[in-house]
Write a structure and sequence with these properties.
There is one protein chain. Helices cover 16% and strands 40% of the residues. With 302 residues, it is α+β, with helices and mostly antiparallel strands. The strands form seven sheets. The chain has an eight-stranded antiparallel barrel with strand order 1-2-3-4-5-6-7-8. A three-stranded antiparallel β-sheet has the order 9-10-11. The protein has a three-stranded antiparallel β-sheet with strand order 19-20-21.
Length: 302
């Protein structure tokens, strides 16, 4: 698939927006409502043709970040956009080709689009408005995303506190994957208003994403995971969760970065063990581990 065709296909799925319809809420002006970044939550079409996120700017320009699992690597594409007199959004690619789409529903945090794409047919896609919070302890910003009834950090926590470390003790790994923590530190590491999720809260996320057999694939980021033989370890990147394989630390030993991610829960399994969520390039599951082991943290809003 060449870049022009790839842009048009991805644009048709992830970037086509239009003026308010009768289902649109709060009476916001269309342009004001659309400005910002949006993450793909769910779509009725093949995920290998959908962008990861899109940003609309006030000046009528924007940026699409996409990765095509059928041969086109991750890339970013600029575009221009405007709303025409009929209340439609016109999306213009760098080649000058235009796409026109309509909207089903819009609010401050969610967007649902529907339309027909030549050669593909009818599509329906749901997006979440990207938001951030600032950790007042060190002023780091984190993306957050609402998934079902829960609001999650969309990145691993990265604050130097308690018994924690960067993978291989290299700061660049903290920047990419967040910091690794033992369980006792993890219990109190999240910022005010957030907490380490219990196993029940993790399972609510897993169930919303379709259950144990498919949730890991949906929650993993669409790039950043190694391959397992001929199998691509990357996920579908749905819901904006963007799970990355930050590995594990145990004493001075670090393992599995690029191949697996481990996230603590607040739920104990006896005196010495606690439950954690595990995602790898091959499978995804619940397990329990020794509390001194260093895993990643995803914070959940109170």
């Amino acid at each position: 698939m060449n870049r022009t065709k790839s842009f048009l296909v991805a644009a048709g799925f992830a970037l086509a927006l239009a003026l308010m319809c009768s289902a649109c809420s709060e009476g916001s002006e269309p342009k004001k409502a659309l400005v910002g970044q949006w993450d793909t939550m769910e779509s009725s079409v093949a995920r290998d043709l959908i962008s990861d996120n899109v940003e609309f700017l006030n000046d009528g320009t924007g940026m699409m970040e996409a990765s095509n699992l059928k041969g086109v690597g991750a890339y970013a594409e600029v575009f221009t956009w405007k709303i025409d007199n009929d209340g439609r959004l016109i999306l213009m690619s760098p080649t000058g080709a235009a796409s026109i789409y309509s909207i089903v529903e819009i609010s401050k945090s969610a967007l649902i689009l529907e339309g027909n794409v030549a050669g593909i047919g009818h599509i329906r896609t749901t997006y979440s408005k990207r938001q951030t919070i600032t950790d007042s302890r060190d002023n780091k910003k984190y993306r957050v995303v609402k998934i079902g009834e829960q609001t999650w950090m969309a990145e691993n926590l990265n604050i130097e506190i308690g018994n924690s470390a960067c993978y291989d003790n290299k700061p660049e790994n903290c920047q990419k994957y967040g910091r690794l923590y033992d369980w006792e530190t993890a219990l109190k590491a999240c910022p005010k208003g957030w907490h380490l999720p219990s196993d029940e809260e993790w399972m609510a996320l897993v169930n919303f994403a379709g259950g144990d057999k498919v949730a890991g694939k949906k929650l993993k980021a669409r790039s950043g995971w190694n391959k397992a033989g001929y199998r691509d370890g990357n996920g579908e990147g749905l819901f904006g969760f963007s799970a990355l394989p930050g590995g594990v630390g145990n004493g001075t030993n670090f393992n599995h970065v690029g191949n697996a991610g481990y996230w603590w829960s607040s739920s104990e399994y006896g005196n010495d063990l606690a439950y954690y969520r595990y995602m790898s390039i091959e499978n995804d599951s619940w397990d329990y581990g020794n509390k001194p082991v260093l895993f990643s943290i995803r914070c959940l809003q109170d």
